[in-house]
Amino acid sequence: MPVVLRQKGIEPARVLAELGLAPDTFDHPDGRLSYRKGGQLLLHCAERTGCPHFGLLAGQHADPSSLGMLGELIQRSRTVDAALNSLIAHLHLQTRGGVPTHAVEGMHASFGYAIYLRDMPGTAQAYDLVAAFEFNILRALCGPRWSPVEVSFAHGRPADLGPYRHLFGCRLVFDADRTELRFDRHWLAQAPLASDAERHRQLQREVLAQESVAPEVLVHHISATLRRMVANGRASESLLCDLLSIPRRTLHRKLAAQGTSVRALLEEVRYEYARQLLLDTDLSTARVAAALDYADASTFNRAFRRWTDTTPAAWRERAVARSANAEAPQLAARPEASA
């Protein structure tokens, strides 16, 4: 972010001060920022610079080294597939506002990201940043000959497609049910350019040590797994038990002790994801229902009424109006944003 702000003629410290953040926020690689505050910062930067694709530009300055030890771990992996799975397994050590996704279907593979934090500001900017970041990760793993065949975004179509076409050089899909890069699956079997078995074993031990120092509680771990499943369009209790290698009865008993259940956690995840899709995309109710793995739109509508006492269409109309009203005063107060 600081690089892009300075390129646009704006001092980063000034932008941070306007949001009440410390002037050295960007100076500490291991520093932490809440996901919601990060979304506000991205949105504010886009407004202040007058650059609607600010997130895309910021993401282009991130690469595996931005992930510290985890970034080196994935680059030393045996295959690209193993690298992506390692990233998915351990990214919670750095962020808990979203989950990376990875799937293989037919001749193509996908690498994406799903934000699950409810009503997060700047979601479109965040998705653009992550898409550019993931593009750089795959280029670092596979080399400059790698390229996607399609990139989809879980937000509306921007007015200017030029920056997106310039970076990705492939088919672009907006108002999609997920943000992801699709590419030829043969790349998954390739060894990353910096593959190193011995160094990978060393890094794996260090990462696992971090896991033991900061272990995930069961409910958080299950919720994170369910988010990945919903983001990939497949969510069921039987699949969850397979992924976690835990018997169904044991899972029920442990969750009951925490006052919850798989069904309750899955509904919460679907609710979070539904709100993001309704607010940030123009997907129809039927397509949102399909993305959340509901049998049909009617089943989704009944579930949404249980959550909100209203229909998805009515909720979307009010949410979009609230979002527009919240942004209008900020834009009006900064006429110099386009300078």
Summarize it.
This protein is α+β, with helices and mostly antiparallel strands.
Structure description:
This protein has helices at about 1-5, 10-20, 35-50, 55-60, 70-75, 80-90, 125-140, 160-170, 195-215, 220-230, 235-245, 250-255, 260-280, 285-290, 295-310, 310-330, and strands spanning about 100-105, 110-115, 150, 170-175, 180-185. A hairpin with a 2-residue loop joins strand 1 and strand 2 (about 110-115). About 55% of the residues lie in helices and about 10% in strands. It is of the alpha+beta class and about 350 residues long. The protein contains 16 helices and five strands. It has a five-stranded mixed sheet. The model is unreliable at about 330-339 (pLDDT under 50). The protein is globular and about 50 Å long. The chain folds into two domains: about 50-200, no CATH class; about 215-330, Orthogonal Bundle (Arc Repressor Mutant, subunit A). The longest helix is centred in the last third of the chain and has 21 residues, at about 310-330.
Q: What is the count of DSSP helices, taking H or I runs of 4+ residues?
A: 16
* Unreliable residue stretches: 329-339
Helix content range of the residues, please? 55-70%
Would you tell me the structural class of the helices and strands? alpha+beta
Q: What best-fitting shape do the alpha-carbon axes yield?
A: globular
- Residue-averaged pLDDT: 87
Strands of the widest sheet, in order across it, are 1-2-5-3-4
Major sheet description: 5 strands, mixed
Q: Beta-sheet strand percentage?
A: 5-15%
